[in-house]
Specification:
With 151 residues, the protein is α+β, with helices and mostly antiparallel strands. Helix content is 32%, strand content 24%. The protein has one domain: Beta-Lactamase, CATH 3.30.450.70. The protein is built from three helices and seven strands. The strands form two sheets. It has a five-stranded antiparallel beta sheet, sandwiched between helices. A two-stranded antiparallel sheet has the order 3-4. Helix 2 packs antiparallel against helix 3. The radius of gyration is 17 Å and the shape is globular.
Length: 151
């Protein structure tokens, strides 16, 4: 499970950032903004791959960007939609149980939740996300915070 999930618009403005530990939120903001350089680099190198015929050229880009980078504590994964909305999931590096397949499923669930949130006629695209349903989707993907008992 994830320790932080971030959604950014096409201008890389954070729309939503949730963590399982609010005391580390500033650190996660730094990690998310660091990963934007890798996302822009990967998206700028994508070129038209398939020519359909002489008159039209179709570009194909995989939305799942894979692992963007890793540190000693965290691994950062990226996903970009057709409308350039960026999803970033940060997981603990010590979590070796997560497979690439499971990360893709997490991004699909996040993308579906985001798409469903856009159906709300009261939501203005580009505004910070305050939807309770989308909040619960993100909460279901986050690793529960570890509670330390103090005596």
């Amino acid at each position: 499970m994830a320790v932080c999930i971030a959604i950014l618009d096409r201008n890389s403005t954070p729309l939503k950032l949730m963590t399982n530990d609010p005391s580390k939120e500033v650190n996660f903001h730094y990690i998310v903004h660091t990963s934007l350089d890798v996302i822009s680099e990967r998206c700028s190198t994508s070129a038209p791959l398939v020519a359909v015929n002489v008159k039209s050229v179709e570009t194909t880009r995989d939305q799942y960007l894979g692992i963007l980078y890793s540190t000693e504590q965290y691994k950062v994964f990226g996903y970009i939609t057709n409308t350039s909305i960026k999803f970033i999931i940060i997981v603990e590096a010590s979590n070796t149980n997560l497979r690439d397949n499971e990360i893709r499923q997490m991004f699909r669930k996040l993308h579906t939740g985001y798409s469903n949130m856009l159906y709300n006629p009261f939501y203005t695209p580009g505004a910070p996300i305050e939807s309770k349903k989308f909040h619960s989707v993100i909460k279901s993907l986050l690793l529960p915070a570890t509670v330390t008992a103090s005596k």
